[in-house]
Design a protein that fits this description.
4 helices; elongated; Multidrug-efflux Transporter Regulator, Chain: A, Domain 2; 158 residues; four-stranded antiparallel sheet; alpha+beta; two-stranded antiparallel sheet; 2 domains
């Protein structure tokens, strides 16, 4: 099955009876959880509840935790924290993708030189520049090889 054919876990597609059956609960239990704010489904224009696959997963988890003796306020807090973790994971994936795209768009452009006029130019790694006493090369610390001392190189004629 192609990826675009897969069902979105956040699509509100199940009526209350179907969601209750999938979660192994009575529809009245789902209504109660909605009133308490534990699992809040989407609503149609007519006001009917519509549950997603993720809601069904949450309902199952609420049922399991409740059967284990956990209070509904404690379950609500757990669900809140799980949602926060889910959002943070999404943000981390997004930031990692941005960093990767940035690295791919600027390969090797991590060495900079300052000209005597003060202009900054980037150099490809391994490129040498004829220097005067006024030119200083800068490399980030993470790119220094073992044995290199500082973030600057001095003119060998000094």
């Amino acid at each position: 099955m192609a990826e675009h054919d897969q069902l979105d876990e956040n699509s509100p597609i199940f009526a209350i009876a179907a969601a209750a059956e999938l979660a192994g609960m009575h529809p009245q239990t789902l209504r109660q959880y909605d009133r308490l704010g534990l699992v809040v489904p989407a609503r149609t224009q007519g006001g009917s509840r519509r549950y997603s696959l993720r809601h069904v997963q949450q309902l199952r988890e609420v049922g399991r935790l409740s059967n284990d003796g956990m209070s509904l306020p404690a379950i609500a807090r757990i669900l809140e924290l799980e949602e926060h973790v889910r959002e943070l994971r999404f943000r981390v994936r997004d930031l990692e993708a941005r960093v990767q795209a940035e690295l791919e768009n600027r390969p090797g452009a991590r060495v900079f030189a300052a000209e005597s006029s003060g202009a900054v130019v980037s150099l490809r790694h391994g490129t040498r520049l004829r220097r005067t006493r006024d030119v200083v090369l800068w490399r980030p610390r993470h790119s220094l090889s073992a044995g290199e001392d500082a973030a600057t190189e001095t003119d060998p004629d000094d």
